[in-house]
Amino acid sequence: MSAAGHNHMHPDKELSDLIGCIYDCALDKRRWPSVLEKLCDAMGGICAELSVLNTLTGASDIMALHNWTAEFLHAVQANIHTSPFNALGLVMPLAEPFCVSRDYGLEEMRRTPYWKRVIKGHGTSDYLIIPLKRTVAKLAYLGVNVSEARDVFSDQDIELARVLAPHVQRSIHISGLIEHRDIIEGTLRGMLETLAAAAFIVRPDGSIDYRNHQAERYLSEGYFVKESNNRLVATHHGAIEFLGTALNSAQSVSVASDAYIDGCNEQSLHMTCLRLGEESANREYLILLRSPEPELRTPIQAATKLFALTARETQILAQLLQGQSLQEIGDFLGVARSTVKMHLDSIYAKSKTRRQSDLVKTVMGIVPNLRM
User: Fold this and answer.
1) Which whole-number Å values give the CA distances from 241 to 73, 149, 238, 259, 265, in the listed order?
2) Which of 94, 82, 42 has its CA nearest to residue 66?
3) Which of 40, 173, 196, 311 could form a disulfide with 45 if both were Cys (CB 3.0 to 4.6 A apart)?
4) pLDDT per residue of the chain (372 residues) written in tens, 0 to 9
5) Chain mean position to CA 68
C-alpha cells in the first residue's frame, strides 16, 4: 500500500462535494471504492474498507476497498475472528468514530495477536472504525487505516470523520448494503424501485414528480403523509415540521437531513431528505420514509447497558461467554492476566454475582429471545 496525501478539505465546497459523492453511492454501490479514496485523502488515511462483519461467526464480507494489497486482505480475512473489536462492535455507538489510539490504546493493541498477525508489517498504524448498521448477526462498518509514517489520526481527522459518519450511515441504510440488495441499471427512478424505503422525488412546493411502489402504502394510510392535488402533504405534526424545513429552498443549506417521528399507537417513522439539484430554480428533493429498526438486544449489549460496563469489561465478558480462560483473554486483548482479573471483579460487583458460572447464567438470561 502506498501512502496517501493528507489534504484537509475546504470547509464548504469540498466537504459538500464529498457528502454528495457519499449519497451517490446509495444508488450505485460501485462508486464506493472511489469514495473511500476521497475519504482517505480527506482524513490522511492510507487505505479504507466498507465491510459487514458476522458477529456470531467472526466472518467478514468486504463490500468495498481502497488501496488494500492482496496480502493484507488475506491476513484480515484469515484472522478476523481474533479481532478485539468484534465484541466492541456490539456496543459501539452507531455513526460515532472509534479510534484505536484514542479509545483503545496503541500499546495494548500492539500486544494483541491480531496486530501481530494482521497489522504489523503492512505499513499501517492507527485504525479508525465507524459502526454504521447493526443486527444481532451483522455489523456494517467503515474502517480507515493511517500509515506508519503519520502514526496516529489527528483531532482534525477524527472530527471530520464525526461530521461525515451520519452521511455514510444514511447512504448505507438507503442502499440496503447489509441486506446485499442489487441496484438495477437504468434511471434514478428505476434504482429507487429497489429500495425497501418509500421514496418520493418532490419539488420545493411539494409537487410529486415520482413515487416508488413502497410510497403508495404511506399515502394510502395517510397517518404521516398524504397526497393532495399531486402534492406531498404531511399529516403528522412532526412530519409537517420536518418537511416544512427540508423543502424550504431559502433555508436548506444541507445536502441531507433526518428526523425520527414518534406517533401514537406505537407507530413511528424515520424521514430522510436528500437534496438532488444544486440550482434553486430546478432543485428537487428525494424524500425517504421508513420504519425505524427496533432496538437491537443481545446478551452482551444488554449486559453492557444494564450493568454500565466499560469497553474493556465488555470485551472480557464477551470472551468469557465464549469459554475463554483469564490467561487466554489476556493474550487475546494484549493485557496481563491480573488486569483481566481486576476487570472481572468489577463485572462481578456490578452484576451482583460471585462466580463465572453465575455471571454467564445471569447475562444469558437478560435477553431470552434474540432478533435475527
Assistant:
1) 47, 49, 5, 10, 20
2) 42
3) 40
4) 544 445 555 556 788 889 888 988 887 888 999 999 999 999 999 999 999 988 767 778 889 999 999 999 999 888 988 888 888 888 888 999 999 999 988 888 999 999 999 988 888 999 999 999 887 678 899 999 999 888 899 999 999 999 999 899 888 877 764 444 343 334 567 667 777 789 899 988 899 999 999 999 999 999 999 999 999 999 999 999 988 888 875 444 457 788 888 876 667 888 988 887 655 556 788 898 988 766 556 788 889 989 999 989 999 999 999 889 999 999 999 999 999 999 999 999 999 999 999 999 999 888 654 443
5) 21
Which amino acid is residue 175, in one-letter code?
S
**340-to-288, 297, 321, 327, 336 alpha-carbon distances in Å:** 46, 25, 14, 8, 7
Sign of CA dihedral 89, 67, 33, 275: positive
List CB contacts of 11: < 8 A, sequence separation 6 or more.
none
319 near 275, Cβ under 8 Å?
no
> Residue 309: what residue type?
L
Give the burial class of 312: count Cβ atoms within 10 A of its Cβ; 0-12 exposed, 13-18 middle, 19 or more buried: buried
Q: Is 372 exposed, middle or buried (0-12, 13-18, 19+ CB in 10 A)?
A: exposed
CA 172/CA 194 separation, integer angstroms: 14
Q: Which helix (H) or strand (E) holds 132?
A: strand 124-134
b vs e for 261-299, b when ≥16 Cβ sit within 10 Å of the residue's Cβ? Answer: beeeeeeebbbbbbbeeeeeeeebbbbbbbeeeeebbbb
Around Cβ 209, how many Cβ atoms within 10 Å?
Answer: 12
pTM (global) more than 0.90: no
